């Protein structure tokens, strides 16, 4: 989890962008333990602004009892969250040929996890040995 991105995201969710330290800590603890999705998301967002430093860049202000996101902090967060569109995909096709309907790609084959079949075989063999011993 990227601490600085999480701070910005938490602060922007509060009215006026201000959160007391107790609220900020509680929300960050919830997000930190919410699973790998949040950690991956904050890492992706942080990668869009590699030199991010919320304190020295003036993205947040430390006020009595808490922190407040600044307008500059909101702008940086907007830049991080903006969807990146490649230039070649940004232009729409001018003519669509209706005689050839779009087809979806063929479904990918579902691959079994390695070792799963072996585990089943081992369990079955163990059951058979247990039955043989019991009789």
DSSP helix fraction: 40-55%
CATH fold name of the domain at 3-85: Arc Repressor Mutant, subunit A
- How many DSSP H or I helices? 6
Q: Return the average pLDDT rounded to an integer.
A: 78
Strand content: 5-15%
Task: Determine Rg (CA atoms, Å).
Answer: 26 Å
What is the CATH first-level class name of the domain at 3-85? Mainly Alpha
Major β-sheet, in short? 3 strands, antiparallel
CATH architecture tag of the domain at 3-85: Orthogonal Bundle
The span between the termini is 56 Å
Could you give the order of the helices and strands?
Answer: HEHHEEHHH
DSSP, total strands = 3
Major sheet: order of its strands? Answer: 1-3-2
In terms of topology, how is this protein built?
Elements lengths: L2 H10 L5 E3 H12 L3 H12 L12 E4 L2 E4 L1 H11 L5 H4 L25 H19 L1
Antiparallel strand pairs: 1-3, 2-3
Can you walk through the features of this model?
The chain has 135 residues and is mainly alpha-helical. The chain has a domain at 3-85: Arc Repressor Mutant, subunit A. It has six helices and three strands; from the N terminus they run H-E-H-H-E-E-H-H-H. The protein has helices spanning 3-12, 21-32, 36-47, 71-81, 87-90, 116-134, and strands spanning 18-20, 60-63, 66-69. Strands 1-3-2 form a three-stranded antiparallel beta sheet. Helix 1 packs across helix 2 (21-32). The protein is elongated. The N and C termini lie far apart (56 Å). Mean pLDDT is 78; it is low at 86-102 and 104-113.
């Amino acid at each position: 989890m990227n601490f600085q991105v999480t701070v910005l995201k938490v602060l922007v969710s509060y009215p006026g962008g201000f959160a007391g330290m107790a609220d900020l800590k509680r929300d960050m603890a919830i997000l930190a333990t919410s699973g790998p999705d949040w950690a991956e998301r904050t890492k992706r967002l942080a990668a869009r602004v590699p030199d991010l430093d919320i304190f020295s860049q003036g993205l947040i202000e430390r006020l009595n009892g808490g922190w407040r996101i600044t307008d500059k902090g909101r702008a940086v967060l907007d830049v991080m969250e903006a969807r990146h569109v490649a230039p070649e995909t940004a232009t729409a096709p001018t003519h669509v040929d209706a005689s050839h309907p779009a087809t979806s790609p063929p479904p990918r084959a579902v691959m079994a996890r390695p070792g799963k079949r072996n585990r089943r075989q081992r369990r079955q063999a163990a059951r058979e040995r247990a039955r043989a011993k019991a009789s």
